[in-house]
Write a structure and sequence with these properties.
Number of helices: 7
Number of strands: 10
Oligomer: single chain
Distance between the termini: 25 Å
Largest sheet: 7 strands, mixed
Length: 206
């Protein structure tokens, strides 16, 4: 694993995390629901951020695990790393963040996260980190604002009062992939667990 073992992961303030995400995440945007931010440090400098928070539609995510409580799950909704970090850094940082969740937020039993197969990738890091693939669907949530050429998510359009216009904009071609990690191994996933080979079968890879 080389120098990846030297990475230090710790909680950082939202402003520091958000500034880093805006600079290094492909979307250039933060998720307003993010409440817990981990910074990844190497050689005493910040080179990565993982932001966790409540899912925007908790009512849709909660049933993915049998008998799960409203506050027993969390979403890893932003990951951003610069090019300074060595190979295997992302999976190591995720693993450390999960250990920190176990220690400081023991009520959290599982994690959900999504890969944007239209722009960023199909979740290689999640698969390497022990997440289960539980959903692949064609993108319907991201469209391109013809006036600004900006990629806009459906919930973002709703909050901006652009819902009607949103549905007339060009859809971004690709897939969204859903991953789940069970911190509490006794949790039971209520939807089919898909083999990773399904990604290539559906042409959802990047």
């Amino acid at each position: 694993m080389g120098r990846a073992k030297e990475i230090i992961v710790k909680v950082i303030p939202a402003k520091i995390a958000n500034d880093f995400v805006k600079k290094h995440h492909y979307s250039g945007k933060v998720v307003p629901n993010s409440t817990l931010h981990f910074g990844c440090f190497l050689d005493d400098k910040l080179h990565g951020v993982m932001s966790y928070g409540a899912s925007m539609r908790k009512d849709l995510i909660q049933p993915l695990i049998e008998n799960t409580g409203w506050n027993e799950f969390i979403e890893l909704n932003r990951m951003a790393f610069d090019d300074y970090l060595p190979k295997y850094s992302e999976s190591r940082c995720i693993a450390i963040s999960i250990k920190l969740l176990k220690k400081y937020a023991p009520h959290i039993k599982w994690i959900v996260s999504f890969s944007d197969g239209t722009q960023s990738g199909d979740g290689t890091i999640y698969r390497a980190s022990g997440f289960y693939l539980t959903g692949i669907k064609e993108n319907s949530q991201l469209r391109i604002n013809p006036k600004t050429n900006e990629v806009v998510q459906s919930m973002q359009a709703f909050h901006l009062g652009l819902s009607k216009e949103f549905h007339t904009w060009k859809k971004l071609i690709g897939f969204q992939l859903r991953y789940i990690y069970l911190i509490d191994k006794s949790c039971k996933i209520t939807v089919p667990i898909l083999p990773f080979s399904k990604i290539d079968e559906m042409g959802a890879g990047m």
